[in-house]
Amino acid sequence: MIDILTSYTFMIVALGTVILAVASGIIGTVSVIKGQSLIGDAVGHATFPGIVLAFMLAGTRETLVLALGALLLGIIAFFTIQIITEHSRITLDGALALVLSSFFGLGMALMSFVQGNPDFEGTQGLSDYIFGQAAYMLRSDVYLILAASGASLLVFILFYQQLKIYIFDPVYSRSIGISNMLMNFMILGITITLIAVGLKAVGAILIVNLLIAPAVVGQLWSDRFFHVLIIAAATGGISAFAGTYISTAGNDIATGPAIILVLSAFVLVSLLSARKGLLRRSILKRKVGERS
Name one Pfam family in it (predicted). Predict the structure, then answer.
């Protein structure tokens, strides 16, 4: 155990995944409370073609370049969803399904094209961005995650009061001069940024779990917004550390899926035993029934 905790590879991967999970847990809480978590899912899938296109245009697998490509396609996907819902009769659920499947299908098609094309060399590793491959994270990847997460949390802290008002009372926030559109775009921009830099760690398919699962755990244990944020951040960080340790100790366990499995365990335990969990609610109903 000590050998694993002190190994250079484990420390690099654990630092990157923990920072990413803590920031994602906090920022994802806003999206979950606002009912926009599925937008993050669609955007996460839509970033994959951006990675492949960035590789095709730049001819490099540098994480920053691929993250910029993912960020650009994520923004395009979001505005595509907005255009579809505002200028057609298609509902938000339908638009999300269309964008998710179309963009991810485009990414898979581009991936097949570059892998079978002799004009593109060094395609090894691009497919890892589908499910993530944190074991190959470098120090530069951790710096990128640290910079993106730090900037995201700084923006969140600076606009904390405005965001809290916007989340729970958008009518009042508009009446006191807060731009709801600006708040919405800011949260979505931060979310897309975290998705883009986290693809190498957990992949396009699993990244949304880092945004949703910690927030769900936090809401099951508390009704106070600040406490929910703390619980979400702690849940994400602990899950990332434990998942990284499990994947390092086990030879055939990928880091991203291991983290998601630990997160899922937290959600399951919380659904059963949290203050608003199923067991607690059934016990309270039984006590009320006995009193009546």
Answer: ABC-3
